[in-house]
Amino acid sequence: MSPDPKRPGRLSGRVALVTGAASGIGAGIAQGFAAEGADLALVDLVDESAAAPVLDAARGLGARVSYHRADVSDEKAVRAMAAAATDTHGRVDVLVNNAGIFTQSLLEDMPVADWDRVLAVNLRGTFLVTRVLIEPMPARGWGRVINIASQLGQIGGTEVVHYCASKGAVIAFTKALAREVARRGVLANAIAPGPIQTPLLDAETPAWRAAKLAELPIGRFGEVSEAVPTAVMLASDDGSYYVGQTLGPNGGDVML
Ligand SMILES: NC(=O)c1ccc[n+]([C@@H]2O[C@H](COP(=O)([O-])OP(=O)(O)OC[C@H]3O[C@@H](n4cnc5c(N)ncnc54)[C@H](O)[C@@H]3O)[C@@H](O)[C@H]2O)c1
Questions:
Q1: Which residues form the pocket of ligand 1, taking CB atoms under 6 Å from any ligand atom?
Q2: Which of 53, 163, 212, 241 is the most exposed place for a label (fewest CB within 10 A)?
Q3: What is the pLDDT of residue 94?
Q4: Closest CA to 19 of 80, 64, 81, 75
């Protein structure tokens, strides 16, 4: 990798792949990475037209951007997506596993299908995408994996046992992976944001959001722009001594 003199920045010359990039935190990370000089492979379930605002914003910042429509829980689709992204950009240096979903119900009412789908996207998807994209990183001696977990995976939350289980597992997955690859130059870390204003948060019930707001030390929900700098730091050389950590832009919802 050599930095691109025309696009200076902390990620100049890097190629980053971000899943769930069409909306919310993933869209913000894509834009933040482009602003720091990265080229981008952006992945989401939605049509390319629905992702157009994110693609246009990143291209407006000078990034070379490709879009890959894929369901991260589908092994075949993930393999095809990874091959297309690698063909387009030559390699992927930074992987952000951000795609995630959420439904809400008490455990006793929770449809098994909801449990299965949330675990499939949030946990299996993280495994599948990481497995295929991490493989060439050790030979290059440099790589970053950033998994977007959640503070609910650390402290739990009512009506979201599946989501909490998936995100707690993503944190454990990240620690185990970090131990496997750190000495080969690949650093894996997690970000566990608190409640951030996105369509995912909007989908929670008003009662749930009011209860969460009441217990948040900072007294407000976060903005996407308040989670993005943590991802930029971990992706860049500024993150060179972070291994298996879970960083928390969370408004004080978790204090370790
Ligand atoms: N917003 C919050 O309060 C909050 C807090 C903590 C953690 N998170 C996590 O941050 C991540 C991003 O969430 P967000 O709030 O930006 O949500 P969002 O709903 O705005 O964006 C999620 C994106 O993921 C995509 N996606 C969903 N399923 C997919 C699949 N199977 N394959 C590919 N793409 C898929 C969606 O189409 C969407 O574009 C998620 O992992 C979420 O769990 C969010």
A1: 19-20, 22-26, 44-46, 71-73, 98-101, 121, 125, 148, 150, 193, 195-196, 198-201
A2: 241
A3: 98
A4: 81
> Which domains does the chain show, CATH number per domain?
15-247 (3.40.50.720)
Give alpha helix (H) positions in 36-160.
Answer: 48-60, 75-89, 112-119, 125-134, 137-140, 152-155
List the structure tokens of 54.
Answer: 């994110």
Q: Can you state the angle between helices 48-60 and 24-35, rounded to 10 degrees?
A: 30
User: Could you tell me the distance, in angstroms and rounded to a whole number, from the CA of residue 26 to the centre of ligand 1?
Assistant: 7
CA 228 to ligand 1 centroid distance, Å? 14
- Residue indicated by tokens 């997955």: 173
Query: Residues 125-151: pLDDT tens digits?
Result: 999 999 999 999 999 999 999 999 999
pTM check: above 0.90: yes
Pocket test for ligand 1, best of 71, 101, 114 (most atoms within 8 A of CB): 101
pLDDT at 206: 96
How does the average pLDDT of the chain come out, rounded? 97
DSSP three-state, residue 146: strand
Residue 22 Cα to ligand 1 midpoint, Å, equals 9
- Residue showing tokens 């098994």: 112
Q: Give the confidence band of 166 by pLDDT, cuts at 50, 70, 90.
A: very high
Yes or no: say if 51 and 130 are a contact pair by the CB < 8 Å rule: no
Per-residue pLDDT tens digits for 110-124: 999 999 999 999 999
How high is the pLDDT of residue 1? Answer: 73
